[in-house]
Amino acid sequence: PSILASSTIPPMDVKIDTAKSLFGSKFSGQTATIIAVAPGRVNLIGEHTDYTGGFVLPFAIDYSTVVMGTGSVEEKPDNQERTASIRFVSDKSPEEVESFEISESSKPPTETAWTTYVVGTVFQYLPDLKSSQSHLDLTFTIAGDVPLGSGLSSSASLEVSVARFVEVVLGDAAFSSVDNDSIKSPAKWRALRCQKAENEWCHSPCGIMDQAVSSAAKAGSLLLIDCRSLTFNETKMNEQSDDTPVLVIANSNVQHDIAGGEYPVRVAQCKTATEALRQVNPNIESLRDATPDDVETAREYMDETSYKRAKHVTTENERTLQAKEELERGDWNRVGELMNESHASMREDYEVSCEEVDVLVDIAQQFPGVYGSRLTGGGFGGCTVTLVAKDKAQDLMDHMQQEYKARTGKHCPCFETKPSRGAHLLSIKDHKPFV
Ligand code: GAF
């Protein structure tokens, strides 16, 4: 796994140079014509609400994945179904050129490897090929710096960058197999396809948040996502006052794995809680439809675990909608309180935190100049996000590293970040973004 260097985010050029030299050495004779980029993400608030159709408020970060390469679509008269040849190499295992042949009838492997995220994503685009004689040919390199297993969405960043690359190869045919809406909102459909790749190919029951923000984020904005309608609402922090705070991320260095373990258990527990809520209100289709009052009313029909899970999700949806308002208003104290409440709810009711993350949050919440701090992402390790006065950010990072080491014996890389842009293309000539 890549290591987060404290306070420094590697520049884009480093990733591009890596992708380029890998391409030159592994695929000599071919010319790379496309560079697609997709970021990792941090969620400010709205945790474990996406898979029940709720609200989330994440933003893209400068850590990202670069996919560089070339591709074409050919017609093969002997083809019985739509097919693809995929050849790629990653900076994580630069010696291995991966090679896959897939068709519309390909099935996900039973064992998920990192390559499954790539192949599963390409598979989602096969229906866009014109006919069963069509064949998609892709050759590319991957270079990224999103820390793996740290709750910053390295997998979504990989899927979305591959998806954006495939869309360029397909040109006008991209999304041609879905309805017209996709032409108007490719970012949404890209996110849905990448989520499907992860759900069906990688056996991970994740929600839509990570793929959606990696696909659709705009620089300078957080994205309020309604995970049911999949509508995106850009949210800017109020920057009119001089005291606009900054966002600091700290990595507990405890690795998480959302496909195994507790994440699917939480997804199932939300379903059980919804069944109980339906006994008092049959119109509740998912936790998104319930209020914290509904949960109290239905408590007698629930076991303690269902009650706690439903309480977290319903209160978290309210906190998320409120946080959007307060961010725009610039009420940092209130945003901070909501973040602190969110963390307490994740720790006590949703039970997705862990000792080290609680220590990190505790250190931050005690520090002068901090408005609020909480676990971000799936949990069971990973990172925290802290809202802190701009002039206290460096002191906070130094203090967190020292204190965390003293209390846990572990190192916690920290960095300051700002909302960055979602999936985009760079010119192969000068590496500047296409608008
Ligand atoms: C992980 C999942 F991938 C997201 O869909 C989301 O559920 C998140 O955990 C928790 O909010 O990142």
UniProtKB/TrEMBL annotation:
GO molecular function: ATP binding; galactokinase activity; metal ion binding
Tagged with keyword ATP-binding: yes
Example GO BP: galactose metabolic process
InterPro entries attached to this UniProt entry: Galactokinase (IPR000705), Galactokinase_CS (IPR019741), GalKase_N (IPR019539), GHMP_kinase_C_dom (IPR013750), GHMP_kinase_N_dom (IPR006204), GHMP_knse_ATP-bd_CS (IPR006203), Mevalonate/galactokinase (IPR006206)
Alphabetical UniProt keywords: ATP-binding, Carbohydrate metabolism, Cytoplasm, Kinase, Magnesium, Metal-binding, Nucleotide-binding, Signal, Transferase
GO cellular component: cytosol
Name of the protein in its database record: Galactokinase
Organism of origin: Nitzschia inconspicua
